[in-house]
Amino acid sequence: MEKLLVSGGSRLSGSVRISGSKNSSLPILAATLLSEEPCIIHNVPDLSDTNYMVQILITLGAEAEMENGTVKVQAREISSQAPYDLVRKMRASVCVLGPMLARKGEAFVSLPGGCVIGDRPIDLHLRGLEALGADVEVKGGDIRVSAPEGLKGAKINMRGQYGSTVLGTDNVMMAAVFAEGTTIIESAAAEPEVEDLATFLNALGARIEGAGTPKIVIHGVESLSGAEHAVIPDRIEAGTFMIAGIIAGDGVELENVRSDHLTSLIDSLRGSGHTVNLQDGGTINVSASTDPKANEVTTEPYPGFPTDMQAQMCALYTTTSGISVITETVFPNRFMHVPELKRMGANINLKDSMAVIRGVDQLSAAPVMASDLRASAALVLAALGADGTTEINRLYHIDRGYENIDQKLRSLGAELHRVNG
Ligand code: EPZ
Predict the structure, then answer these.
(1) Is any ligand 1 atom within 6 A of the Cβ of residue 197?
(2) Is residue 227 part of a domain?
(3) Distance, CA 92 to ligand 1 centroid (Å)?
(4) 400 in ligand 1 pocket by Cβ < 6 Å?
(5) Of the residues 185, 327, 330, 374, which should be mutated to test ligand 1's pocket, given the most ligand atoms within 8 Å of the CB?
(6) Helix axis angle, 373-384 relative to 235-248, nearest 10°?
(7) Are 116 and 192 spatial neighbours (Cβ–Cβ below 8 Å)?
(8) Residue 166 is part of a domain; what is its CATH number?
């Protein structure tokens, strides 16, 4: 199993280009199932998750290939079955449910199950599809949704106990594109990735308004054509590299960034006194304050502070003098990175879904275990500033969501390399 050895102390400088968004690519690739015509998707990051989604499309009957960040897909005929061994490896594959139901009038998808960041229910997805007139049956770990008479537009509130649902909003929006009449989704997720999906669906010929706000309106159409689309930049990768530039940088520049997708993170970093300069053309420069201030952050659905940046912010606060507090409201148990950071000398107390972090001068290297995608990134960030060489195990987690992260960090001057062991 691969490990990453990261030697702390190198100073990072120079420029790195941010890849396309994983969390935009996955639902957009699923949406290609809605059309019989050819689709071309550009700026797709080369990750295990995106390659896996391409395999899912092929297994479902589409012709699909990915080369140099461009995916060409044509789903002339598709199956309505996405079996367990497909879905269990990647929760996000549940977003084939909506397009399959819309296209085939039925869909059999295995329940995705949970993961280390918490239970990953899909009750809100199913409630939305039922509101469109689908029959939903959950049996033996599988979901069967069917609408032999077609779907009918409805007014649906997608809010759950933890706020909006990103993939739930995506699934209902995709299911509604052929529904008779108009569908209104209230309490919709407003993430940029939902808006990017709607932009692609409208390019296919759908009629969707309001994506990127909590109220989305979908007017049903008869069919969709093909389309070409370029995926938005990955705001979480950008945020991760911004924090790398603050922990270990001497002036790091990021290219291909949508800073308007990162206002909450930028405000938090500036609140600690760090410098974040926004330049034209999607370039951001970051540099650390010489006297950073402790801060408080609460994760919320977009445009609030993103839960996908919570672990990385924890890593930054471990060596920010004073007492910082991070409260996680989206995935309350999303703290698998904390025990590993404590192995490196971090002073963190967890109470319910709140991490109280007392800054220490410097972390010290230790063998640590990656547990999920963003926790792995947090461990890399912590290792960049630690004393000694940190060994990060279970590297496959980070390869799910960061394209060439070690090459990109090395290009900035970091000392890290993979070993088998
Ligand atoms: C998306 O997951 C992202 N994944 C996640 O990023 C991200 O953390 C999450 O949104 C929140 O922003 C992709 O886009 C592929 P949710 P999703 O449905 O859509 C609860 C990463 O690191 N909920 O918005 O699955 C749920 O338990 C990944 O890139 C229900 O209760 O998340 C959670 O507490 C990790 N019932 C909250 O809502 C439902 O039916 C938000 O989940 C659905 C969700």
Answers:
(1) no
(2) no
(3) 9
(4) no
(5) 330
(6) 20
(7) no
(8) 3.65.10.10
Distance 260 CA to ligand 1 centre (A): 21
Residue whose Cα lies nearest atom 39 of ligand 1: it is 122
Domain region containing 384: 2-19+234-420
Ligand 1 centre distance from Cα of residue 167 (Å): 7
d(CA 28, CA 170): 9
- Does any ligand 1 atom lie closer than 6 A to the CB of residue 401? yes
Q: Which residues of 268-296 are buried (b: 16+ CB within 10 A; e: fewer)?
A: bbeebebebeeeeebbbbbbbeeebebbe
If asked whether residues 111 and 239 sit together in one domain, one would say no
Cα–Cα distance for residue pair 97/159, rounded to 1 Å:
19
The residue assigned the tokens 């869909």 is 107
**213/249 same-domain check:** no
Dump pLDDT digits (tens) for 374-417. Answer: 999 999 999 999 999 999 999 989 999 999 999 999 999 999 99
- 82 & 148 share domain: yes
378 touches 339 (CB < 8 A): no
pLDDT, tens digit, 9 for 90 and up, residues 240-280: 999 999 999 888 999 999 999 999 999 999 999 999 999 99
Active-site residues: which are they? 115
Picking from 190, 220, 250, the residue at the C-terminal end of a domain is 220
The pTM score is: 0.97
Residues 152 and 169 in one domain: yes
Ligand 1 contact, 348 CB (< 6 A) = no
Q: Which of 166, 307, 336, 372 to mutate to test ligand 1, by most ligand atoms within 8 A of the CB atom?
A: 166
| Residues 313 and 291 reside in one and the same domain | yes
Same domain, 240 and 378: yes
What is the greatest pairwise CA distance in the chain? Answer: 65
In testing the pocket of ligand 1, which one of 25, 167, 313 has its CB within 8 Å of the most ligand atoms?
167
Based on the fold, state whether residues 286 and 194 are members of the same structural domain: no
Residue 181: inside a domain, yes or no?
yes
